[in-house]
Amino acid sequence: MSAAAELVPDEDFVRVCRLDELPEVGAAAADIGGTVVAIVRTKDGSVHAVDDTCSHANVSLSEGEVDGCTLECWLHGSRFDIRTGLPSGPPALAPINVYAVKIDGDDVYVATTPQNTTPTHLER
């Protein structure tokens, strides 16, 4: 992936990489203005962006496994829906942020602010 995200003038998106820099199925980390996000490509070719840090154990989600629209943390197995940021169950209880993605030609752009409005914690 490219070393630094490039700001797109007059928009709240940054260019983070080319499509061919992403794994065919999997995730890669990108730093967007000090926020590390996981850029995830699924088996169907769709691209998503979520916070790279697991809400349970503070480890990199981009090192985890992608299964459908789920990203699994490699440390304790927390699973997050990459469309909503919601965990599927313990050990993670708090959601992660989700960022809008735009594809322009071969370039991947990610929003600089999260798009989801999920709560920062879930009630028991």
UniProtKB/TrEMBL annotation:
Pfam families: Rieske. It comes from the Bacteria. Residues 14-110 form the Rieske domain. Keywords: 2Fe-2S, Iron, Iron-sulfur, Metal-binding. PROSITE patterns: RIESKE (PS51296). Gene3D superfamilies: Rieske [2Fe-2S] iron-sulphur domain. This is Non-heme iron oxygenase ferredoxin subunit. It comes from Pedococcus aerophilus.
